[in-house]
Amino acid sequence: MSVFAMGLVLWTIRFLLARVSEVDVAYMSLQELIFNMYRSLVVQSNRLPTVNWPLRLVIAAWYLYCYYIYALYSGTLTAVLAIPAYERPLDTLSEVLEATKQGLIPVVIKESSVHYMFQAATSGIYYDLGQHITGDMNYVDDPPSGITKVLKGQGNVAYIDARLSSEIQMMLQGREQFYMGRQSFFPQGYGIVCPSGAGYKEHFDIVLEHMVEAGLVEKWKTDEILTLNRRRHSSPSTTEIVRKGPGAITITHLQGAFFIYVIGGGLALLVLMIERVVLMVGRHSGGEQQKKEG
C-alpha cells in the first residue's frame, strides 16, 4: 500500500512541477514511479526495463526474494534492539561470586553432585563459591523447590543446577520470569549401562553416536521443552499473559524466500516454453499459408 501511495504522490508532484515550474521535468508514467519505489524498498538500484514476460517474471521473483531476505534481517535486528534489559545479569560463576558480596544467595540441591563439587573443591572458583554455600538457606531438596526459591527471593537468589533440568522447571513455572546464565560448567554425561561383555554394546555405541551427530537428541530435548510450554499455557488454570521473546533466524524462516524465487523461475521457464511453441506454430502456419498462395 505504501509503495502504491508513494508512487501516486511522486506522480502528483511531478505533474504539478511540470505545470507551475519552468524547470523541464522528465516524464515518467505512474507505473514507472511505482516500480521505482518498489525497487527502492528491496534495495535494488538497477533499472531493468524489459517487455519479455519470462524476464519480467524472473525479475519479479528476484525482487520478492530480496524483499523477504531484507525484511527478515531487519525484523531480527529490531527484535534484538527490543529485548528488555535485565538488571545485573549473572552469566558466569565469577559474577555469582561477586554478587554474593551484595547479598546474593547461591542455592543448590543438598547432597547432589553440584553440591559435592563446591564442597570438595580445595581451591579456585569452586572453592571460593563453596564458602558461601554452607547454611540451610543455600539448600533445597529438588529442582522445583530451587526454581520456586528464585521467584520468592525476588532477585536475591541464584539457583545452580543442571541446565536441562533447570530449563524444564523454568518452563513449567513460567520461562519469562527467569534468566538463564550463559556459561555452562561441570558438564554431565548420560549413557546406557550394559552387562560386562555384552555383545550389543558396540552396536549401541554406533547407533547412539549417529543419533547425537545427527542432532536428534538435541531436537528431542527442544521438542519436549516446547511441549511442556504448550501444556502449561493451554491449561485452564493458566491466566498469566504469555510473552514470547525474539528468536534467531533459521533456515525454516528463510526457505519461503527461496520458494518464491524457485516458483518465479519455474513460471518464467514455462512462459518461455509457451512463447517458443506459439512462435513455432505461427511460423509453421505462415509457411503453410505461403505455400497455398504460391
TrEMBL record:
Domain Ionotropic glutamate receptor C-terminal: residue ranges: 2-264
Membrane topology: Multi-pass membrane protein
Keyword Cytoplasm: no
UniProt keyword Ubl conjugation, yes or no: no
Molecular-function annotations in GO: ligand-gated monoatomic ion channel activity
InterPro entries in the cross-refs: Insect_Ionotropic_Sensory_Rcpt, Iontro_rcpt_C
Chain ranges passing through the membrane: 258-282
Signal peptide span: 1-18
Record's subcellular location: Cell membrane
Swiss-Prot/TrEMBL keywords: Cell membrane, Glycoprotein, Membrane, Receptor, Signal, Transmembrane, Transmembrane helix
Cellular-component GO terms for this entry: plasma membrane
GO biological process: detection of stimulus involved in sensory perception
Family to which the UniProt record says this protein belongs: Belongs to the glutamate-gated ion channel (TC 1.A.10.1) family.
PANTHER family: IONOTROPIC RECEPTOR 20A-RELATED (PTHR42643), IONOTROPIC RECEPTOR 60A (PTHR42643:SF24)
Protein name from the UniProt record: Ionotropic glutamate receptor C-terminal domain-containing protein
